[in-house]
Amino acid sequence: MRLLLLLIAMIxxxxxxxxxxxxxxxxxxxxxxxxxxxxxxxxxxxxxxRLSTTVLNGSDDSPVSNVRLVVKNTSANFYTYVTGWATFYxxxxxxxxxxxxKVDALAPGExxxxxxxxxRLRCTPASWRIVATNLLTRTADTAKEVVAAPPPAEPAAxxxxxxxxxxxxxxxxxxxxxxxxxxxxxxxxxRKIVLRPVP
Length: 199
Prior knowledge:
The structure is a single chain. Helix content is 11%, strand content 41%. The chain has two helices and 13 strands; from the N terminus they run αβββββββββαββββ. The longest helix has 16 residues, at 2-17. The two termini are 64 Å apart.
């Protein structure tokens, strides 16, 4: 049982990690004959919808309870699950109805007809808008993050030309270069001398 609960929790965490929640403030109202658009959390266009239902004469006594609409994926992502709200406004810009819509899978550029069950439209609307609440992408699409090109490699520092020095021991001169050893016979022993720069 614990393993099952752990597995369900991991699945939910994974689903939440790839869910993009849209920002409702960016959505604009549209006339009933125009497409309404919604953006993703980054503000990029994600979906747009057009109304299929043309008769929308609701009232308090007889509200419209369902509306058909066609949702189009305008992004480059493949969405495995899309949900959102369709909100309607009367001629005075007062909200008079809203309904939740969902689409199970939506490829880039694909259209899907859906409805808004539970809608209670209590007016004859003049404008509407949609807001995407969940845009669940495939894991492969989420993993494709835009990676900036690595900065150009710094040119290798050129090795300075060897600097020659002369070591003078009792008037006897011996040429030496930085990093190259010189072997001198001092007394009865050979001595190795290396000239190095100070770090």
